[in-house]
Fold PhzF family phenazine biosynthesis protein.
Amino acid sequence: MRIRTVDAFAARPYTGNPAAVVLLDGDGFPEESRLQAVAAELNLSETAYAHPLPGAPDADWALRWFTPTTEVDMCGHATLATAQLLAEDGLLREGERVRFRTRSGVLSASREPDSTLTLDFPTAELTRVPVPDGAGQALGAEAVAAWDTGTLGMLVLELADEKTLWELAPVSAAVAALPAPVVVVTAAAAEPARNRSDSGEPGHDFVSRVFAPSQGLPEDPVTGSAHTALAPLWSGRLGRDTLMGLQASRRTGRVRTTLRGDRTLLNGQAITVLDAELRTGL
């Protein structure tokens, strides 16, 4: 069985967030234990499985995502990776849209003229909450504000500045004890996105890092779904609907966000780096 690894939200190989993707031929998924076992074997932040839905009125493919330890309700980068492979296989052409039936409802991806991909995800509902006790000790820096994200299931913590975010030294066990399975830390960019960095890459409006040790991910390299919460937060703060986010992991990755009310568009690049055969099958 063919299995491919795609670096999502990546401008070049070995950056962004790698996802393994299996496009299944049949009209259903193998048993869950097998899907989880393969995801654990690969040990990437997510492994995505998709199968076609011929004749279905609401969606074109069914899609599921697994971390090394559990199935998750929503994953942006592995959805982007799946759309990239559909494009490479001639199943998603420029200007077209593909719909995925998922545990979070129907999500879609479209292919842009510049070969980037745009995901259409629900915007997270943000509620300001007190900074949880122990957050500073868990992260190695004090947060200045906190938000609950409702059904997204993430805790967003704002830090004082970008430099503090880059220098975090989180303690995984303490992060796992915070009142959310996924902790997103964020800060405003040190310089405006209109300025270009010394490397020649585009600038950014805000930065983030994401930690999910209770889901088998001490730090996630680039988290598309987190940007459905970061987009309304920073668009409201900066007064612009379209922003560039930089996730400041070791691999780094950029996500362009466009806020459209209850929907958030996530745009980025993806690069296939591995094409292999799963010899044990599913």
